[in-house]
Amino acid sequence: MSDIAWAAWLLVALVLLGAEALTLQFVLLYFGLGALVAAAVSPFVPGVAQGLVFAVSAVQLMVLTRKPVLAYARGQRDVATNVDTVTGRSAVVTIAIDNHANTGQVRVGSEYWTARTPGDDDPPIAVGTLVRIESVAGVTARVVPRQAPAVIPREYQ
User: Fold this and answer.
1) Angle subtended at Cα 78 by Cα 111 and Cα 67, rounded to the nearest 5 degrees
2) pTM given for the model
3) Which long-range contacts (CB under 8 A, 24 or more apart) does 44-47 make?
4) Buried/exposed 77-95: b ≥16 CB within 10 Å, e otherwise
5) CA-CA distance, 99 to 125, in Å (whole number)?
6) Percent of the chain beyond pLDDT 90?
7) For residues 128 and 145, is the Cβ–Cβ distance under 8 A?
8) Are the C-beta atoms of residues 143 and 123 closer than 8 Å to each other?
9) What value does the mean pLDDT take over residues 77-104?
């Protein structure tokens, strides 16, 4: 058996890798790679040890590389969405923000967002106040009043 063990492991690897190509679940891939490792060591180790090499290498490969491989295959790249772009920007209050009255709206550029303050006990914010968007929860912007500059630049006086 040891004379043809490498061929048997190679056949197992090809079957597993072929099945992986049909399913694309990235599970059989690791067992196929484990079979290739077992085929490589088969001339040097006895049959039972080959099975152990197969199992250990397949599990190690899966544990160490499955998450990065899945992320790459699914194309999970950071793409900025509208929500990502408004955080940190300035906005103007168009409807007074009052968490207790459940009211508040801000204008960010040409868009209008429902707005609330981060804390439930924060004081209301009046219309016309310049605010900074701290975060976005769903479709609601969490805002805080911007601090007035210590010195007003000449071009704004």
Assistant:
1) 145
2) 0.48
3) 46/2, 47/1, 47/2, 47/5
4) eeeeeeeeebeeeebebee
5) 10
6) 59
7) no
8) no
9) 84
